[in-house]
Design goal:
alpha/beta; Aminopeptidase; Glucose Oxidase, domain 1; 2 domains; 10-stranded mixed β-sheet; 8-stranded mixed β-sheet; 20 strands; Peptidase M28 domain-containing protein
């Protein structure tokens, strides 16, 4: 894997150099008697495109959560937020809410040797979960690990090498099928007495290895004190590329490893701003517009590009919220609008988990969460609203408002398959609305769904459909505007319970 040193000379001050001018104020449409007109006309495609190109360019090096790049991008965003006229709503009168990440990873001194091969961890192979281990044992190869193959071998006290093969038969994605082996099949081998498990990619798994193996280099992230911060010494699970298949199968080899885990903390940040409402009572309640500013940073190069810019994921949401802020500045709603950019989403929804548990406004005052997640790709006339299908729907009232806003505005054809609990991607559980929904707060997610450039360096600003992104932004705004101005907050669904 390629490692690129951080350009420390590009300090946080450099982030301020990209400050964009305010969008020109659009003319308001005449309002019906006694009712304020919305400011949808303040949302401009040119503003959204400008902001997205600035944020998702190479300057911020993919905005990896918990790095200087995420912090530099966050400073730039705060400069843009201030320019919209939004008020700070973070800690201590600022736009920032700081929190710590707990990172648990293998130490640099960890080693792995199989036979005569010294495996360079995170270059020639990866350990899929941080664990302390000191093992020297015979290595046995069991093919694909079928019952027939295992019946021929005693795996007790041995390291077991297994060929990844086959395809999912129960509707899950191939990625989840392979990753499931690292827990499921490996767990069964450990129960049978294996002291380590080595998975070797076949041809289809090699494509997955090329795309995803770098995530294990980072280790595991959580908020301090979470159960996942505890390091349990378990038999290690190794993932090797297909090029290792020939020599791993050789008989009579020894497996030897010394794995040492290290754990430490460093900061990430949420960005919080608000536009106070106009109604003396309703201004105490908030419609929360949500997104995340981080992506994957600098990782293994694909076609010579090692910066994972995250234009769709999730600079689209970041640019959308700036546009919605300009609309609320031009015409505030009766309720207050709260805007939260959640840091370290890609680390496991950590910023939203932290903010939902430690909000800078009373938790009970948040009446709805509208979350923007990847809104600029795929067919121009299609989109999805997650949280609109049971068991994910925790407010049919809020969903009706969003559907009405779609009909009022862009009239997208809505894909409902991705919101079903049977969908192989489990997409509902992978964005920042989730922690709020678990608290019972009405929450929905606006998305144009996954695409082939997801979590690759090809997720570039040039690939975004800006006309579509503008319509997605308008849809989200119109929903929030309706919620901000109705007298009663969106009703919560009785008996709401997620399937997991």
């Amino acid at each position: 894997m390629t490692h690129i040193n951080y350009c420390l000379r590009q300090g946080l001050a450099a982030a301020l150099c990209l400050a964009a001018p305010l969008a020109a104020t659009a003319q308001k449409k005449p309002a019906p008697a006694g009712k304020a007109a919305n400011a949808e006309s303040a949302i401009h495609e040119a503003d959204i495109k400008r902001d997205l190109y600035a944020l998702a360019g190479d300057h911020y090096r993919g905005r990896e959560g918990g790095t200087l790049d995420e912090l530099k991008a966050s400073v730039w965003l705060v400069d843009q937020i201030r320019a919209t006229g939004m008020l700070p709503a973070g800690d201590d009168g600022t736009y920032f809410q700081w929190f710590n990440l707990q990172r648990t990873r293998l130490g640099k001194s960890s080693t792995l040797r199989i036979g005569t091969h010294d495996v360079r961890l995170n270059e020639d192979g990866v350990v899929v979960a941080p664990t302390n281990a000191s093992i020297t044992a015979p290595l046995v190869y069991v093919g694909t690990g079928s019952a027939a193959e295992l019946a021929k071998v005693d795996v007790k006290g041995k390291a077991v090498a297994v060929q990844i093969a086959g395809a999912p038969t129960d509707g899950i994605s191939y990625r989840r099928y392979v990753f499931g082996k690292f827990g499921g099949q490996a767990g069964e081998l450990v129960k049978a007495g294996a002291v380590a498990v080595v998975f070797v990619s076949d041809a289809p798994a090699q494509a997955l290895y090329d795309h995803w193996s770098h995530i294990y280099e980072r280790g595991r992230y959580s908020l301090p004190g979470a159960a996942s911060t505890k390091v349990v010494s378990t038999p290690p699970v190794i993932w090797l590329p297909a090029s290792a298949a020939a020599w791993v199968q050789q008989a009579g080899q020894q497996f030897s490893t010394e794995l040492k885990v290290e754990s430490f903390q460093y900061p990430s940040v949420n960005l919080v701003a608000k536009m106070p409402g106009t109604d003396a009572q309703l201004k105490k309640e908030y419609v929360l517009f949500s997104t995340h500013q981080d992506h994957d940073g600098v990782r293994a190069p694909i076609a010579g590009d090692s910066i994972y810019n995250g234009a769709d994921d999730n600079a689209t949401g970041c640019a959308a919220l700036l546009a919605i802020m300009r609309a609320f500045k031009q015409q505030p709603g009766r309720r207050s609008a709260l805007f939260v950019y959640q840091g370290s989403e890609e680390r496991g929804l950590l910023g939203s988990t932290y903010f939902s548990a430690h909000p800078t406004v009373p938790q009970a005052s948040i009446v709805a969460v509208l979350n923007a997640e990847m809104m600029g790709r795929n067919a121009p006339d299609s989109a999805a609203l997650l949280g609109s299908t049971p068991p994910h729907m925790n407010s049919s009232d809020l969903v009706k408002t969003a559907l009405a806003a779609n009909q009022q505005g862009p009239k997208f054809k809505l894909d409902t398959e991705w919101d079903k609990p049977t969908h192989p991607e489990g997409w509902y559980f992978r964005s920042d609305h989730l922690p709020y929904a678990r608290l019972g707060i009405p929450a929905i997610m606006y998305t144009s769904l996954l695409h082939v450039d997801y979590h690759t360096p090809r997720d570039e600003p040039s690939r975004i459909d800006y006309a579509k992104l503008t319509k997605m932004t308008q849809w989200m705004y119109l929903t929030g505007w309706a919620v901000a101005n109705r007298t009663a907050p969106p009703a919560r669904e009785p008996g709401f319970k997620l399937e997991r």
